[in-house]
């Protein structure tokens, strides 16, 4: 299935987390920039990097934030794998991805083990993998 199909399955109550993350990793996304800075927001101590599946989704988001129709937004394109494995660990503090924010088919990729590298995951203790992550991986 495509990333859109995996997100739709989540919204339909039939999630397959591994397939969802896998499709995100294989998909190129648009990350809006403002003054050469990646657009993000912070909520409850977690930074959420905005990413969009296509220009239409980005345009809907821009309109919802008060942009005039037809206004061009700057963005960079990256594979989901690069976002999760390179960008997220390079950002200071816990950071996740808000995919297609503001849409009915949006999805969150929180900064947890199995989505982002352990070095950037908030559920990994300094002594190693948390009990919950270890159970998820079959190590406990």
What does this structure look like?
It is a single chain. With 140 residues, the chain is of the alpha+beta class. Helices cover 33% and strands 26% of the residues. The chain has helices at 3-11, 17-26, 55-64, 80-90, 131-136; strands at residues 28-34, 37-38, 40-43, 46-51, 75-79, 95-99, 107-109, 124-125, 128-129. The radius of gyration is 16 Å and the shape is globular. Residues 126-140 have low confidence and may be disordered. It comes from Streptomyces inhibens. Pfam families: SseB.
Give descriptors for this structure:
140 residues; alpha+beta; three-stranded antiparallel β-sheet; four-stranded mixed β-sheet
Task: Describe the secondary structure blueprint for this structure.
Blueprint: H1 3-11, H2 17-26, E1 28-34, E2 37-38, E3 40-43, E4 46-51, H3 55-64, E5 75-79, H4 80-90, E6 95-99, E7 107-109, E8 124-125, E9 128-129, H5 131-136
Parallel strand pairs: 4-6
Antiparallel strand pairs: 1-2, 1-5, 3-4, 6-7, 8-9
Number of domains: 1
Distance between the termini: 31 Å
The largest sheet, given as strand count, sense and whether it forms a barrel, is: 4 strands, mixed
Helix % is 25-40%
C-alpha-based Rg, rounded: 16 Å
| SS-based class | alpha+beta
Summarize the helix and strand pattern as letters: HHEEEEHEHEEEEH
Instruction: Give the oligomer, counting copies of the same chain as homo and different chains as hetero.
Output: single chain
Stretches where pLDDT falls below 50 for ≥5 residues?
Answer: 126-140
* Residue share in β-strands: 25-35%
Q: Residue-averaged pLDDT, rounded? A: 88
Strands ordered across the widest β-sheet: 3-4-6-7
Separate helix tally: 5
Pfam families: SseB
InterPro entries: SseB_N
Domain SseB protein N-terminal: 9-111
Protein name: SseB family protein
